[in-house]
Design goal:
The protein is 9% helix and 30% strand. It is built from 2 helices and 8 strands; from the N terminus they run ββββββββαα. It is globular. It has 145 residues and is mainly β. The two termini are 25 Å apart. Strands 1-2-3-4-5-6-7-8 form an 8-stranded antiparallel barrel.
């Protein structure tokens, strides 16, 4: 259930529906960008990774750049971001940590029961909208997210 998501659920390695390898870590002390740092790298390598931030707002919402978390569809192993500028554009992240659940605040993995309760999904099953956050950067819509 998405209402159960906490910042720790985003930590780790993911694949997004645009073919990026996504790495999410705690932001460095003194960072002004957000609570978590994200790096999106092309799966084929080459080029600098796209740098983004995940923020949790006081009302429980999460955002990453100009994408908002879809609270109904997301869970700890399957994250759905919706572009609030183009609502038909989505980016889906599926956990790529070798099948493990998200680490908790102590760095320990959550039990399989949490993952089973939330269900599964496939990152390559949702390529609606096309393009990527990198495409937005090329068109001048990028910057620190």
């Amino acid at each position: 259930m998405a209402g159960d998501l906490v910042l720790e659920d985003f930590l780790g390695n993911w694949r997004d529906s645009f073919g990026h390898n996504v790495t999410v870590e705690w932001a460095k002390a003194g960072s002004r960008g957000g609570q978590l740092d994200c790096a999106l790298a092309k799966s084929r390598g080459g080029g600098q990774p796209i740098r983004l931030n995940v923020k949790q707002h006081s009302d429980g919402r999460f955002n990453c750049g100009h994408y908002d978390l879809d609270l109904r569809e997301s869970r700890a192993d399957y994250i759905v971001w919706v572009d609030y500028r183009k609502s038909n554009r989505r980016s889906v992240w599926e956990r790529d940590d070798g099948g493990g659940a998200a680490p908790d605040a102590r760095g320990e993995r959550r039990g399989d029961g949490d993952r089973d309760r939330r269900g599964g999904g496939s990152w390559d099953g949702d390529r609606r909208g096309g393009g990527s956050w990198e495409d937005d950067d090329r068109r001048g819509g990028g910057g620190s997210r």
